[in-house]
């Protein structure tokens, strides 16, 4: 294994010199309050050793990163039947785009765009007795950390300005691909997005996708085939219309969120999370992408 400690300190130093840190998301008002100068990075290797730098213990809004966790839970419940409701092709469009949804009869391209995650939310609501509590317990269980929680103020803030998500949910409903009512589905979706976690907590959750479905406590959450497929979806769809660029620059399956977090992993080797709130024009963390490019270039470790 490379010397992650010294590599992370070099990366943190280099990104701190960047003058353009991107722009903090403001379309969800609560997110705009975050300090753009925050930067954290954390690596968890296959042996369970953590390496961290900067604001890696500070919690942030994981936003779309939660889409992978909702998918993981719904996939476990439905097995391959899930793909009758949502596709597995990259969209090449921004995360909140609507036109493909109309053209493709309300079946979202993939589970990592907003429309896809709204369908996954609908599936979870239909199958769980207490959807918000059960999903939270699922995430806490994987991390072995009961302090993980929703941020109600972020969920409320997003509901007030979630016009495009309401549009997507209504369009999906009109094609009969939403079984529950729009308000219930979006309340669940907004809560998932509002999950608040630090880099050090998130690496522990995404450890299951790096470690053949097994968490740090060695409980199994996913079989190998599902892990393979979820990682493939992260690689091809995890960065929306920048998935090609992320594969090209970083070369790892991963997922971003508009809270400025990015998770990425090299199967059987390590999982990494970066947090820098400033986003590029595609809605992905600017310094996070830069840091991950440096990480895979300096270590020579990527899936390619
Ligand atoms: O639905 C939304 O717009 C947000 N809750 C999540 C978007 C997001 O994180 C996109 N990722 N880069």
Physical arrangement of strands within the biggest beta sheet: 3-2-9-8-7
Summed over residues and divided by their number, the pLDDT gives a mean of 96
Which oligomeric state applies?
A: single chain
Rg, please?
18 Å
CATH architecture of the largest domain: 3-Layer(aba) Sandwich
Tertiary shape: globular
CATH topology of the largest domain: Beta-lactamase
Summarize the amount of helix as a percent range. Answer: 40-55%
Could you say which structural class the secondary elements and strand pairing correspond to?
alpha+beta
Number of helices: 12
Please write the string of helix (H) and strand (E) elements.
Answer: HEEEEHHHHEHHHEHHHEEEEH
Q: Which ligands accompany this protein? A: 6-diazenyl-5-OXO-L-norleucine
Level-1 CATH class name of the largest domain? Alpha Beta
Count of DSSP strands: 10
How large is the share of residues in beta strands? 5-15%
**Which superfamily, in CATH terms, is the homologous superfamily of the largest domain?**
DD-peptidase/beta-lactamase superfamily
Contiguous low-pLDDT stretches (5 residues minimum) are none
